[in-house]
Amino acid sequence: MNSAPIAPTLRASGERVFRVRGLSLRIHRRSFWVGLACLIVALGVAGYSLTIGDLPLSLGDVWAALTGHADPGTTRIVLDWRLPRVLMALFGGIALAMSGAVFQTLTGNPLGSPDIIGFNTGAYTGALLSMLVVGGGSTGTTVGALIGGTATGALVYLLALRHGLHGYRLIVIGIGVSAMLGAINSYLMITVKLEAAITAQVWGAGSLNTIRWIDLTPTILITLICLPLLLALWRQAGMLGLGVETASGRGVNIKLLRVALLGLGVVLTAAVTAVAGPIAFVALVAPQIALRLCRGPGIPLLPTAFLGAALLVISDLVARTLLAPVQLPVGVVTVVLGGGYLVWMLISRLRKA
Question: Which residue spans traverse the membrane (predicted)?
Fold first, then answer.
């Protein structure tokens, strides 16, 4: 039985199309290499991070622990203490970056990320209500953050939809909702006992310091479920930049697509915030840097995801080692990174004006 060969077709735009039995796979060459480079950097830094700590290990020791050939002490250090944190940085970076790509595509604005629009703040509100009012444990905090992020996303969408959904309106309404939720969060923090407020404030800085396997599992599952769904929708999502009439004329169900993208973006954000707290600016920075590196017609999803993983795992390594033995919350490092990006973006825009 003869198998149909894979026939590549090179397009002028830099895309290579592989056709197999009527199916086609489009690969933008520059995006492929950028994504591969980001993935290699992310995995390389992750491997190095497993060697860093109070008890330094060699890469050989780490590999032995991962393959089950190390002594019990080394195995426990790598598998129980360090690996969950590193995996959370990788998958959390992927989830946040993809969420940023979704919202920037929906709004058509480089500032349209979940931390700017307010979904991070909503997830934080849900977690605070669970921790400080209901008195739930880690599971209750996770559920509260998921509910808070989802409810905020639904509220912002419904308010923005009243006169037709536009990117600018979505951002402005999101900023307003975020400001109101921020006031609620501040009120909750000043009306509880000092010990509870300190615990909530540490969590609110965005930290990977206490990540355990039980915390990590939901984030990995949600990320792995949402990734193929977004890949399936991403070509249609790119048509949103052509305008509603053009996209509709090409067979895109605009309302259904927007609801699906919004839901996936909110779930991805809440999945990370529920476990690690609100980690700012990864969702804002990663899509725009990937767009500039790939030089394609729209935000590339996979390069953005792998770049987000690289950014968060590097930020976590800096947070662990900058003031060692004191470990900073990773959110502190990402805020510095995002602030630098915003300054650079402002300066570049002023030069073009």
Answer: 31-50, 86-104, 116-137, 143-161, 168-190, 210-234, 259-286, 298-319, 326-347
